Amino acid sequence: MNKTVAVIVVIFAFLGRPYCFGEQPVGDGEGAENNTLRIYLPREVVVKTDFIQLGAVGVVRGDEDSVGKARQIGLGRFALTGQQIVVDRPTILSRLASNGIKAQDVSLSGAEQVKVKRQERVISGRRFAEVALAFLKTQGVYESVSDISLVREPKDWVLAEQDGEIKLVARLGRYSRKDKAAVWVGVVINGIETGGCEVGFDLKYKHRRVLASVDIGPGVVLSPENVEVETVMGSSPEPAGWSVPYGQVAKRLIKKGAVITGNVVGPAEPPVVINRRQTVVMKIDTGGLYVSAVGVALSDGKVGQYIRVKGPSNSRIIVGKVMADGTIEPVF
Fold it and tell me: Could you write out the three-class secondary structure of the chain?
């Protein structure tokens, strides 16, 4: 019994301190943890800039020098609006290693991968359409337009979140026509246009048209008794100076309900006032001089027409204009 106690005392004296099973050697435990770069990864994160850095993706802890270096390590860049970039653990360890931080010196926790989005501002397509329509209504050239309809609502415009004033500025597009209008709406940030979209509209006009209220035969004069006027919507404005063609004559049969256009009617023909072989008076009246003579018409003549007349000597042929009073005004 005394020998056993003596042996235990010697062993303790040799070690100089008690030893417990499971105790870690010096350099592990808390001391080693302080030398390890610890990174916590969330499942999703939103960043403000195009360039993604590790410090914006995860929570980085460790010694000050290592943390400062790790936080600046780049993990990618956004190329498109609305883009989402996925960063996984192997990518992070690879980027750390390329910057001199070994994988065994890094402790990762949290998610296996991080979905990274950029903080962005959205301008709705409806807002673009509203700005374009308001601008269009200020343009005098479209004052006669009765109806303006949007061809297609523009897509939403997504831009990176940034400081500064954002304005939508409209101007006429390049391909506007009478029945269509194009308006370019530019996105202006801090006075610089960074992009925009073109908004298209269909244009409709009110205009009048004439229809036959009964069958109208060839040579019949148009009047309120045989035509009616209606107002319709169309793709072109009413021609300037348009009027109902009362007094014009049908060139051919116009059926009831048919639209009367310029190619089916014409001015009424003036009546024949001089007949062939009729004796006519030729006269020149300038106010200070009056000369007259008698001749024979060689053809029928309507007011305003030019006909040939045989002179009183029966040898000379004179060309003259038929006047409303049935006389001839010679042309020299």
Answer: CHHHHHHHHHHHHHHCCCCCCCCCCECEHHHHHHCCEEEEECCEEEECCCEEEHHHHCEEECCHHHHHHHHCCEEEECCCCCCEEEEEHHHHHHHHHHCCCCHHHEEEEECCEEEEEECEEEECHHHHHHHHHHHHCCCHHHCCEEEEEECCCCCCEEEECCCCCEEEEEEECCCCCCCEEEEEEEEEECCEEEEEEEEEEEEEEEEEEEEECCCECCCCECCCCCEEEEEEEECCCCCCCCCCCCCCEECCCECCCCECCCCCEECCCCCEEECCCCEEEEEEECCCCEEEEEEEECCCEECCCEEEEECCCCCCEEEEEECCCCCEEECC
